[in-house]
Design goal:
CATH topology of the domain at 51-149: Immunoglobulin-like
Number of strands: 9
Mean pLDDT: 85
Largest sheet: 5 strands, antiparallel
CATH class of the domain at 51-149: Mainly Beta
Low-confidence stretches: none
CATH architecture of the domain at 51-149: Sandwich
Structural class: alpha+beta
Radius of gyration: 29 Å
Distance between the termini: 106 Å
Number of helices: 1
Strand content: 25-35%
Length: 156
């Protein structure tokens, strides 16, 4: 028994609508449900160039972590030294920190307006951030020398 033209048009429209809905939803909503308690991971930090770094074979990226400039020394190992200076026409950041990997280095030494030794705990595998104390460098500091190496044993 043939379909009436009105029913045939309605059936075609319904089939077309179903096909459109299935094709639009199939690639996203049906394959990857978004639960209300699921959060996507934070985006990776954006590298910046606030300080000129010289004296190292490796390049060390710089990132802003809130209001602290973070110099990533996590790839540093054994011993080494770098010199930091503000980029031409800028000043030192108010807060400065260094990201290091425990066990790769034993101590971080900073020489600027004051000298600071930051011992590194050898336990753990995740990088840690070591923030400089206020006063280690001032707005008039021309350069900062950062060196690292093994933790020296105390003299007997």
């Amino acid at each position: 028994m043939p379909l009436r033209p009105a029913r045939h048009a309605a059936a075609c429209a319904a089939a077309l609508m179903l096909a459109l809905l299935a094709s639009g939803c199939g690639s996203h909503a049906l394959t990857k449900p978004q639960w209300p308690w699921h959060h996507s991971p934070p985006p990776p930090p954006v590298p910046v160039h606030e300080l000129d770094i010289s004296g190292a074979a490796a390049t060390f990226p710089q990132y802003w972590k809130r209001n602290t400039l973070l110099v990533d020394l996590s790839s540093a190992s054994a011993s080494g030294s770098i010199t930091l200076k503000p980029v031409e026409g800028s000043t030192w950041p108010v807060r400065l920190a260094f990201r290091i990997t425990p066990g790769a280095i034993g101590v971080l030494e900073v020489q600027a307006a004051q000298r600071s030794h930051l011992p590194v705990v050898s336990g753990g595998s995740k990088p840690v951030d070591l923030e400089l104390d206020p006063g280690v460098y001032t707005p008039t500091t021309t350069q900062m020398i950062v060196s690292w190496g093994p933790l020296a044993s105390p003299a007997l």
